């Protein structure tokens, strides 16, 4: 959660496990969109001697659909390479790392970023770009913020790119939610009599890190025909965004301790909307979902139309959700929010509709400007610059999606339905204040990663 270890097979392959995707009009550069894809979930900062890094054998990509068919029209591909400078040392670093090319850094990683068009045209935007090291501690990485700043690479045309470790910005009470759907605000009402009073949420991901691929590009790089829409209701104003990780089809393990991969790349992970595979897709189809393109998500729409969690809530909390329990129609609100976008006329002055093709993508209307006073509940709280219009790093997507599943958004498409009173109180009890290392106001927006000396465990 959002997509940490969300399927059986990808949970065994954290290097390729996409955890979160963000897409938003950059608040400090409003002519650009920032795209962020996170990988390697739940990193303990004291992860030595083999600290975390991107996989040299993984093809990472961020995809954009701008013609409403659930297939990529623009993709940015990222490939990584590691240089071991002293193979006779067990150390990640042999002294303080004070620069990205510091000889004390024994396992330096670089990357190449390539733009791929729908017709197959490829253009390498940059190669040999340095990742920062992991944040080890005050002796090994004495000025980590400066190292990270140096790893923000300026590309032509005002574009920026970064790939490296960041503080986990996604806050969630995993322990409670996966303990048979415990919702701490009213856990004492749970059908199992284990609780006597409500309790505050616990941020399971506090003081943990991820690896981020962040890209900031002009809006015109992403839209159909290179437009820069100024009207929110313009049908060309919305793009779809998702990320994937792919591995070679064949892998041979040899007796030297290394392996060789060959064959075409095969998709093993993907992510668009937060929690989609995690909460909606059943266990027996999660691995299949990870291998499919968004264009084929009509095959999974039934799990959005009749979500298991919506059936469980009235059972787990007897008498708390009577209206939800009595609702038997397909969930047209969730189908719109997650699979087609919201058409014009549903939310006054807003739309992020991408047509009839059912596809799990973050949908970002690029004509919506950044909010002057952002609300972490995004669109449902009147802030059209927030989730589910794209996703900002601080958006409280867990609360938004739990409330939506519980019926809060149903009146948008079915005025005859009245949400249960408890619906607007649902939350996992967390806010951005529960993120220990704060977000940044500028690219790459996620905070400085936690170091192992001060944060040896969560």
TrEMBL record:
Domain of life, source organism: Bacteria
InterPro entries documented for this protein: DUF4331 (IPR025566)
Annotated protein name in UniProt: DUF4331 domain-containing protein
Organism the protein comes from: Streptomyces tateyamensis
């Amino acid at each position: 959660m959002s997509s940490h270890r969300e399927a059986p097979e990808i949970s065994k392959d954290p290097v390729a496990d996409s955890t979160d995707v963000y897409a938003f009009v950059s608040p400090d550069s409003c002519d650009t969109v920032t795209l962020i894809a996170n990988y390697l979930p739940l990193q303990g900062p004291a992860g030595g001697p083999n600290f975390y890094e991107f996989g040299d054998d993984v093809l990472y990509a961020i995809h954009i659909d701008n013609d409403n068919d659930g297939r990529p029209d623009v993709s940015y591909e990222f490939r990584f390479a590691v240089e071991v400078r002293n193979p006779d040392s067990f150390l990640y670093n042999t002294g303080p790392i004070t620069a990205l090319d510091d000889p004390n850094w024994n396992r330096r990683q670089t990357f190449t970023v390539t733009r791929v068009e729908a017709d197959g045209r490829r253009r390498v935007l940059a190669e040999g770009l340095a990742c920062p090291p992991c944040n080890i501690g005050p002796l090994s990485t004495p000025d980590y913020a400066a190292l990270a700043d140096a790893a923000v690479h300026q590309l032509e045309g005002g574009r920026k790119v970064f790939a490296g470790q960041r503080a986990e910005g996604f806050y969630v009470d995993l322990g409670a939610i996966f303990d048979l759907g415990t919702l701490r605000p009213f856990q004492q009402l749970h059908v199992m009599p284990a609780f006597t009073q409500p309790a505050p949420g616990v941020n399971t991901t506090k003081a943990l890190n991820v690896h981020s691929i962040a890209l900031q590009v002009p809006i015109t790089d992403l839209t159909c025909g290179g437009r820069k829409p100024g009207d929110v209701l313009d049908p060309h104003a919305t793009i779809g965004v998702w990320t994937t990780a792919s591995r070679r089809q064949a892998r041979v393990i040899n007796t030297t301790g290394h392996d060789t991969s060959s064959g075409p790349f095969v998709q093993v992970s993907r992510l668009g909307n937060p929690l989609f595979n995690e909460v909606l897709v059943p266990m027996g189809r999660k691995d299949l979902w990870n291998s499919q393109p968004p264009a084929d998500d009509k095959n999974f729409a039934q799990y959005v139309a009749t979500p298991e969690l919506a059936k469980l809530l009235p059972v787990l909390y007897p008498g708390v959700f009577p209206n939800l329990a009595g609702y038997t129609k397909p969930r047209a609100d969730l189908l719109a929010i997650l699979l087609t976008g919201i058409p014009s006329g549903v939310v006054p002055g807003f739309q992020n509709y991408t047509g009839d093709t059912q596809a799990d993508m973050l949908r970002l209307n690029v004509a919506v400007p950044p909010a002057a006073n952002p609300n972490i509940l995004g669109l449902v709280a009147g802030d059209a610059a927030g989730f589910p219009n794209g996703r900002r790093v601080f958006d409280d997507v867990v609360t938004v999606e739990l409330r939506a599943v519980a019926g809060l958004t149903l009146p948008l498409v079915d005025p005859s339905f009245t949400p249960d009173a408890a619906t607007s109180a649902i939350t996992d009890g967390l806010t951005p204040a529960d993120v220990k290392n704060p977000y940044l106001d500028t690219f790459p927006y996620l905070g400085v990663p936690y170091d192992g000396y001060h944060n040896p465990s969560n």
